[in-house]
Fold:
Amino acid sequence: MERLLGNERLRSGLSAAFAAGRLSHCYLLAGPPGSGKHTLALILAAAMECTEGARRPCGVCPQCRKVLDGVHPDVVTVDDPARKIISVELIRKARADVYIKPNEGLRKVYIIPRAMDMNAAAQNALLKIMEEPPDYAAFLLLTDGAQRLLPTIRSRSVLLQLSPLSEREGLAELERRFPQKDRAALAAAWERSEGFLGQAVLLLTEGEHLAPETQSFSDCFARRDRLGLTELLVPLERRKREELIPLLTQWIEVLSQALAVRTGQPGRWEAAQRVGRSRTSAESLRALQSLGRAVELLQGNASPGAVCGALQVWLDVSD
Ligand SMILES: [Zn+2]
Structure:
């Protein structure tokens, strides 16, 4: 639950519901882009699959881990990033699947990342499932605004409205993510973000050109080119710590955008789109976590040589 910043009321309400085992079949997660809908969807899905009783979602049991890493077989994303709308065929496919019992989880959770892009036929098909769902089925509908869905769908769902963050929360998070940027730049981006972290992050990386090394990293990662990655990392061992941190941070940004691409959001960089098309969410997430660990080590004074060496092992691009 700590993964979702701000939104105290929403979080405490949900924590109480989780602890009491009161989970609805359908949630509507509403908020503008960058407000935390995707994070909240994963928390909800983890709470539904977690086996730790009162501490749901514990975040550490095998079921939670699989959900948070995007590899749980019973947590299904209903989307086709190549198409503009969520078609009735996609919903029918989910409907055929929903009556097959969960593989290993307690529930079958269907995440519809851009529910507002369902046309009327798709929404009506979804409504049919929502009217008589199997006990174990749950639907998480993500939308920019609740009013973009049919009233009949809204009335069957629990609305979770995401709120803006406080300036203190937002700035602290931006400082953590962009250690190389000065405070004034962070404050300016925050000012324009209307309190939604994802929008501030977009503003801070907008128009930012990817370093040539970032392009090479994305290429190697997308192509599973282990030799290419080694050739990229070896000369980086001689770079200064202060140069390496922003570079690796940019690689992390590309991978987080690649994850967004896989849930149907536009990727601003071609490099991110390429990675999103060629690697699964779980693969990108693993690489992202390795890079995050590398940045932490550098901030903790580890030598660039040691960190680049470790990355060659951690970023096993060929698996
Ligand atoms: Zn758990």
